[in-house]
């Protein structure tokens, strides 16, 4: 079985239409992979997110900036196991790392959230009725491999955003939610 984790941005329909030829990762969901966004589109999206944090002189007040909305989609053999919920962001990668270590208490990927349990070195997801996600159990070892790879990808995302914005501190806030 193949476990796959994908970093996504949540971009509502009215905004996604302004970006070039984007297709959501999943039909009827506002999630777009970062790989699908050109540098121009990503820069435009970041600027949209920074509007409330801008000074009249164009500077940015970091305390008014939050991590980019979105998070992580988990699939196994094409079956959807987890989607970011409301209030999820790229900074939730730490929750996934802890989850891969078997720590379910602090897992956060927005709401609604699954009921999580550990059974014989497997992590089990149990979703509410009507969720697009499937109930399933996955190997903690496989999830750990996925999260390690995702951490490397997220570092690349932070580097890409730093390159686009020319601002290391801003990239750290947008990706990790870390304030200097």
Structure description:
The chain is an alpha+beta fold. The chain has one domain. The chain is 32% helix and 20% strand. It is built from 5 helices and 7 strands. Strand 5 and strand 6 form a beta hairpin. Helix 3 runs antiparallel to helix 4 and helix 4 runs antiparallel to helix 5.
| Count of separate structural domains | 1
- Fraction of helical residues: 25-40%
Number of helices: 5
Which consecutive residue ranges, at least 5 long each, have pLDDT under 50?
none
User: Structural class, from secondary structure content?
Assistant: alpha+beta
What's the alpha carbon Rg, rounded to whole Å? 17 Å
Estimate the strand proportion: 15-25%
Shape: globular
SSE string, helices as H and strands as E: EHEHEEHEEEHH
User: Major sheet, described briefly?
Assistant: 4 strands, antiparallel
End-to-end CA span: 41 Å
Strands across the major sheet, in which order?
A: 2-1-3-4
Average pLDDT reading: 89
List keywords for this structure.
about 180 residues, alpha+beta, four-stranded antiparallel β-sheet, three-stranded antiparallel β-sheet, 5 helices, 7 strands
Write the layout of secondary structure elements.
Elements: E1 3-10, H1 13-16, E2 31-33, H2 39-49, E3 70-76, E4 79-82, H3 93-100, E5 115-119, E6 122-126, E7 136-139, H4 140-165, H5 168-176
Antiparallel strand pairs: 1-2, 1-3, 3-4, 5-6, 6-7
């Amino acid at each position: 079985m193949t476990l796959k984790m994908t970093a996504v941005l949540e971009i509502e329909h009215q905004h996604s239409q302004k970006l070039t030829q984007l297709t959501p990762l999943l039909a009827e969901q506002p999630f777009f992979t970062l790989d699908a966004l050109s540098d121009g589109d990503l820069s435009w999206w970041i600027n949209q997110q920074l509007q409330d944090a801008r000074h009249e002189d164009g500077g940015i007040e970091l305390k008014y900036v939050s991590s980019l909305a979105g998070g992580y989609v988990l699939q196994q053999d094409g079956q959807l196991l987890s989607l970011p919920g409301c209030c999820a962001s790229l900074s939730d990668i730490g929750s996934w790392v802890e989850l891969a270590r078997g720590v379910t208490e602090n897992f956060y990927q927005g709401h609604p959230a699954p009921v999580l349990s550990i059974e014989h070195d497997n992590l089990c997801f149990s979703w509410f009725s009507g969720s697009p996600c499937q109930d399933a159990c996955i190997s903690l070892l496989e999830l750990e491999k996925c999260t390690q790879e995702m951490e490397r990808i997220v570092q690349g995302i932070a580097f890409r955003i730093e390159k686009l914005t020319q601002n290391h501190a801003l990239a750290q806030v947008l990706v990790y939610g870390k304030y200097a």
